[in-house]
Design brief:
about 950 residues, alpha/beta, 5-stranded antiparallel sheet, globular
Length: about 950
């Protein structure tokens, strides 16, 4: 291992005995990829260890303790203050930290640290409950980080954060000791083995409570939203030292121990909600309304200054009136939630009455209409990415969060704006959780020259003096102290409280191995060190802020690289090239980890705050490497021959299966696939049989039924069902039967066998050939649909997406199966749902087309129980990746079989995706139309209009 040069050999050898080699990373690409989190710092770890069990964590900590090797824990890496990176050993959570357990009818939930916050809420949603913390990163952030940072958000305030809703904790201390306060035997053993530690914690608690001035200071600090330093309120809120220990862990950022599981008291998730936007003429009036609203039944009140409103006023979908607001306007976005609609209306009336005496410049009244309140919240949510999208290449986006006492909020806002002007942060915007006096300010910053660093340092010195000293506020409200504010903890808390924090640190981590320089640091310049470079790489990805929001939906996450990591590494490669540094080894590794294993389906763009599709970069790199232009041109010109060739290869595979049997053919083809580096596809029992016949009858001249043009994708024209599939009718025949059942006359485009949407060419980097085939197909569809008079049904959702993206011909109406069934068939069919459960896979293209929920709703008409596996966003088959890079498909679907074990079949809208889903799910997956056709009948007197 490369790390042997920098980590002690004895320690490394012990780690290698403990952890399998495939979960140890010290190569230059992996360590670089894990050297970033969502902050503006970078530390390159010497060794990355992916842990899969509590026992591994315990043994690793014992090894690190013995060798005095610093370690850092990482969950999702969405931290904003530099607390999830390390230049020593980085311990990353693997797959097996996803346990969850509902208790007391959902009043409590036990979670392991690898559970994504939004997934915990999805489990609780049917019970109208949720976890208290609601950070903006909840769709990516994991429970371990949410608790370790005491993350909050728009609604939870100080009453529903992790500290206040903590019911139980299972943790591992720096010496490897495990204690679970919900396990009586564990508690008893810990009280005996660590009695001295508990006695010292109890003494600290008694001394703190007896120190009237210090105790009152602590109470004051936690009346505010505050995550600066350790949770000293544990020392005055509890007298049992184990309770003190558990609550000290909240917000400790991995510096006091490892959180192995947490039990939360959940909070109500009321089903009825409404939002309003009230724009006041100035900051003072706006902030005066906040204490009034704090006494009302509001769930969230978000402040947006004029700068933040201006940052989004030109974005698509924004109301025109945003541009007309006055220069000093300041808005409050207000939300109220209730258990019933009647109660909600009462609350709305009460809220608006309470602020009726304030002058208002513009008001959008409370609305329950999703279109209205989603637009209002879009204004708020788009502010942060709006700054990121317009920043200069090479700069980073910094988001700070501070708290002012509520009674001085207006003054605090104006003073911060003055500091923006003083230090020439003209692009800075201000917004925040007004009820808590918690303000976020966002600005762009370059760190590539000393003058820029000096400007940032001067600004931070002014901010810390203003917030912590002048106003007695909090320098970190919810983002954690990290490295960013570690030098300023004493400034905020004073020497007595600061020394108390150091005593806690030395008591629980006497050798200082847990996340050093985070929360507490003896280096007053630590916030100015290890600043992350953001070099230009490609305009497609230069706006990336490395937040990590994209990572949960990426099929290669945990196999090779995530979208964020692909960008991080590509940026570094480009910077090294400009500096004349050899990048041969990095580029060799990147060819597989960055390019070959990217599905390039673009789901990352849906999660990205600035809309980056990393797949676009990968396709561009593939295009630069594409060296078979003549072959691509030949295939484009002779596409029907290529389809015939595909059928022939499936005939050969089918014949080999008949002769060799399943086991021998699978073993042989796997060996051939490896030897050919993926050029020979890996055969599996889910491999389709060739389509035996292509039946496309000509339309009758006197047929009075309305027409639908059926575009059968190339895979539908070549691939039949798998030999083991219970559905043996070809997709074309089933689709035609369903359309005719609903009263349609089905027609096919001319020269169908030569038509292609272009996706096979685009995915390989042959953009010119892809666009040529796409345009040929669109021309044929325009003719077949009689100039757009007839709707067009495409049976494969990825092909539909390819055709409709940037569609410039307004006459064409191209539908994927879901949208066509939803808009043209549901009113013509009666459904009889089946008893047997059905699994649903929502393809990437269905998600891009905005039809995900519609697909699930249609399935629920057809089956009484519908299973949508959690955390399988993309199957990773990606056209032909399931054949050429089968490990990507296998990794993406590694949890599928367990998730669908109660189902006998699954449905989707992409034939190639269904191959991998069938293989790894252990059940037959086929097209949605099979399910709809089987469970529907033509409605009586259902004439198509």
């Amino acid at each position: 291992m490369n790390a042997s040069a920098t980590l002690p050999g004895e320690f490394l050898a012990a780690v290698e005995r403990l952890i399998p080699s495939e979960r140890l990373f010290d190569d230059p690409l992996s360590t670089l990829a894990f050297g970033t989190d969502a902050s503006f710092y970078r530390l390159i770890p010497k060794l990355v260890v992916r842990v899969e069990s509590e026992a591994e964590v315990i043994d690793l900590l014992k090894l690190a303790q013995g060798a005095r090797i610093p370690v850092t824990f990482r969950a999702a890496g969405t931290s904003l203050s530099g607390q999830a990176i390390s230049d020593s050993v980085l311990i990353v959570l693997g797959d097996n930290w996803n346990g969850r357990e509902l208790r007391n009818g959902g009043e409590q939930i036990r979670l392991q640290p690898g559970v994504i916050g939004a997934n915990a809420n999805a489990i609780l949603a049917p019970l109208q409950r949720k976890i208290g913390p609601d950070p903006a990163s909840i769709n990516a952030a994991k429970i371990g980080g949410i608790l370790a940072n005491n993350s909050s958000g728009m609604c939870c305030g100080t009453a529903q954060n992790s500290y206040q809703t903590l019911a139980g904790l299972r943790l591992v201390l720096a010496d490897g000791t495990l204690v679970d306060n919900e396990d009586a035997a564990s508690v008893a053993a810990f009280r005996q083995s660590h009695s001295e530690l508990l006695d010292q914690l109890a003494d600290l608690g008694r001394a703190t409570r007896a120190n009237t001035a210090l105790a009152e200071k602590i109470r004051h600090k936690y009346r505010l939203k505050n995550t600066t330093g350790f949770s000293l309120n544990a020392l005055i809120d509890f007298d049992d030292p184990l309770d003190i220990l558990n609550h000290l862990m909240v917000g400790s950022e991995g510096t006091l121990g490892f959180i192995s599981a947490v039990t939360y008291h959940t909070v109500p998730d009321h089903p009825h909600k409404a939002s309003a936007l009230v724009v006041f003429p100035d900051v003072e009036t706006c902030c005066l309304a906040v204490p009034v609203l704090k006494q009302q039944p509001v769930s969230a009140v978000e402040l947006l200054d004029r700068r933040s409103l201006r940052s989004v006023e030109n974005k698509a979908g924004m109301p025109e009136w945003v541009k007309t607001l006055s220069a000093n306007a300041c808005a409050l976005l207000i939300e109220s939630r209730a258990a019933s609609q009647t109660l909600l209306y009462e609350q709305i009336n009460q809220i608006m009455t309470s602020i009726a005496h304030f002058p208002v410049e513009k008001q959008v009244d409370f609305s329950e209409d999703p279109a209205v309140y989603n637009q209002l919240w879009k204004i708020r949510k788009d502010t942060f990415p709006a700054v990121g999208a317009v920043r200069q290449t090479g700069t980073t986006v910094i988001i700070e969060d501070v708290t002012f006492p509520l009674e001085r909020l207006a003054e605090g806002v104006n003073r911060l704006i003055q500091l923006f002007d003083k230090h020439a942060y003209h692009e800075a915007i201000l917004f925040g959780h007004a009820l808590e006096g918690n303000l976020h300010f966002v600005f762009t910053q370059g760190f590539d020259d000393p003058q820029q660093v000096a400007r940032y340092e001067a600004f931070m010195q002014d901010v810390t003096q203003l917030v912590a000293v002048e106003f007695g506020g909090a320098l970190k409200a919810e983002h954690g102290t990290g490295r960013n504010m570690a030098p300023f903890v004493e400034l905020e808390w004073g020497p007595e409280a600061y020394e108390l924090m150091w005593r806690i640190k030395r008591l629980l981590d006497p050798k200082g191995i847990l996340n050093p320089d985070v929360v507490l640091s003896e280096d007053p310049q630590i916030h100015l060190k290890h600043l992350k470079p953001m070099p230009a790489a490609d305009e497609i990805v230069d706006k990336c802020i490395e937040c990590g929001f994209c990572e949960p939906v990426c099929p290669s996450n945990g196999l090779t690289l995530t979208p964020r990591q692909r960008i991080v590494v590509w940026r570094d490669i480009q910077a090294r090239k400009r500096a004349g540094i050899d990048t041969t080894e990095l580029e060799r590794l990147y060819a597989y980890h960055g390019i070959e294993t990217c599905a390039a389906t673009g789901l990352c763009a849906q999660r990205c705050p600035v809309g980056i599709n990393t797949g676009d970069l990968v396709r561009k790199l593939r295009e630069e490497q594409a060296g078979h232009i003549r072959a691509a041109n030949w295939l484009a010109d002779h596409f029907s021959t290529a389809v015939q060739g595909m059928r022939f290869m499936l005939h050969v595979a089918n014949g080999a299966h008949l002769m060799m049997g399943t086991r021998l053919l699978s073993k042989t083809s796997a060996a051939l696939a490896r030897a050919s580096q993926g050029r020979v596809p890996h055969w599996t029992p889910a491999m389709p049989q060739p389509l035996q016949r292509l039946h496309m009858p000509k339309p009758a001249d006197q047929d009075g039924r309305p027409r639908v043009v059926y575009l059968a994708a190339c895979v539908s024209r070549a691939m039949g069902p798998a030999a083991r599939d219970q559905e043996q009718e070809p997709l074309l025949d089933t689709t035609r039967a369903l359309l005719e059942k609903a009263g349609y006359q089905v027609v096919f485009p001319d020269d169908l066998n030569n038509l292609c949407c272009g996706q096979p060419f685009a995915s390989k980097g042959y953009a010119e050939q892809a666009e040529r085939k796409r345009q040929e197909t669109l021309d044929a569809l325009l003719k077949a649909s009689r100039g757009g008079l007839d709707p067009i049904y495409c049976d494969t959702s990825p092909c539909t997406l390819r055709l409709v993206q940037e569609l410039s011909e307004p006459r064409l109406q191209v539908y994927d199966p879901v949208r066509f069934i939803r808009t043209h068939l549901l009113d013509k069919l009666d459904f009889e749902p089946q008893d047997s459960p059905i699994a649903v896979h929502v393809t990437c293209s269905t998600q891009h087309l905005g039809e995900a929920q519609a697909l699930i709703d249609i399935a629920r008409r057809c089956a009484k129980q519908v299973v949508v596996p959690e955390d399988i966003h993309c199957c990773g088959f990606a056209g032909d990746k399931g054949f050429t890079t089968p490990e990507l498909n296998a990794h993406a679907l590694r949890s599928l079989k367990e998730a669908v074990q109660v189902c006998e079949e699954g449905i989707s809208t992409s034939r190639t995706c269904e191959i991998g889903l069938s293989q790894h799910g252990g059940i037959d997956y086929h097209g949605l139309v099979y399910l709809v056709n089987r469970n529907s009948r033509a409605r009586a007197a259902a004439a198509v209009s």
